[in-house]
TrEMBL record:
Transmembrane segments: none annotated. This is Deoxyribonuclease TATDN1. Belongs to the metallo-dependent hydrolases superfamily. TatD-type hydrolase family. A divalent metal cation 2 binds at residues 152, 177. Pfam families: TatD_DNase. The gene is LOC105138229. Keywords: Hydrolase, Metal-binding, Nuclease. One of its GO terms (cellular component) is cytosol. The keyword Transcription does not apply. One of its GO terms (molecular function) is 3'-5'-DNA exonuclease activity. It comes from the Eukaryota. The lineage of its organism: Eukaryota, Viridiplantae, Streptophyta, Embryophyta, Tracheophyta.
Amino acid sequence: MATIRMIDIAVNFTDGMFKGIYNGKQYHVADIANVLSRAWNAGVDRIIVTGGSLEESKEALAISETDGRLFCTVGVHPTRCKEFEESGDPEKHFQALLSLAKEGMQKGKVVAIGECGLDYDRLHFCPPDIQKKYFEKQFELAHATKLPMFLHMRAAAADFCEIVERNKERFSGGVTHSFTGSAEDCGKLLSFNNMYIGVNGCSLKTPENLDVVSSIPVEKMMIETDSPYCEIKNSHAGIKFVKSTWPSKKKEKHEQDCIVKGRNEPCLVRQVLEVVAGCKGITEIEQMSRTIYHNTCRVFFPQDLDSAADALLSGHLDSQ
C-alpha cells in the first residue's frame, strides 16, 4: 500500500496545553517531543506552527528551529490586532513583524504571513474597524516578503473577501484555514487565484459542514488540525468516517504514550483526511492525500514542487 504523507498546516504549539498547562494550572510535563513523535509515525512529514501575535510569532519561530520538519508563520490574528495600537507605535510594531519574517525566511523557517484576517464571532477581543485596518496592513508584509498568506475568516465573509479583492495583487496566494463557512463563502474564496481552503475538525461538525466540504475540489484543499483545538469529537457528523484512533488519557492521568483526551494534536490530521475522503465518497485516500500534499507544497514549499510532483507521478504509476 502506498504511504500517506501529510502536512499539518496549522498547529498552535505556542499554546500552554503543550506545556501541560490548562486554564492556568499545570497538569503534566511539557510533551511536544512525544506529540511530534506520534505525528511523524502517523505520516505527517511537516508541520506549520502558527503565529498569532508578534510575541507568539517569535516563539513559533524558536519552536520551528528545534526540528527540520517544523516551519512557522509570522503575523497578528484578528482578535489580537489591538496590539498594533497598544504598542504605542503601530508602524514600529509592523516593522518588528517584517524584521522577524525576514529573519525567519533567512533561516528557512517562515513560510507565510499570518494568522491574519477577520473574526466577527469574537468582537469582544477586537472591534471590526481595527481588525479590518490591520488585516489590510498585513498584506504589506506579504508584498514585502513575497510570502503567501495564512488567513482566518470567521463570520466575516463579505468584508474579508472585499479586502482580499483589493489586495489580490499584493500576495502570491494562500489558504483560508479552519473553514466553517457556507457553500457561497467557499465559492467566493475559490474565485481568487491560488487560494486554498484549510479543513479541520471544526469544518466537519455538522451534516451541512460535510456537504460544503464535499463540494470543495481536492485540488483546492489543505488539511490541518489547528491543535490543540478543533478536534473531531464523537458528537460530530464526520466521526462516522474516522478509521484511525490512538489511546488517550485524561490530562490528570497523563501518559507519554497516549494522546490527552480533549486536546487535539498533529497525528490526528490523519482523521481529517479520512473524513474528507468519506464525505466525498473517495476510496483512493492515498491519491487524494498526494494531491493535498502537492497543493500545500505549491503554496508553502515551492522549492519542493519537483519532488512533490515526482511523488505524485510515482504514486500514480504504483497504482497502475
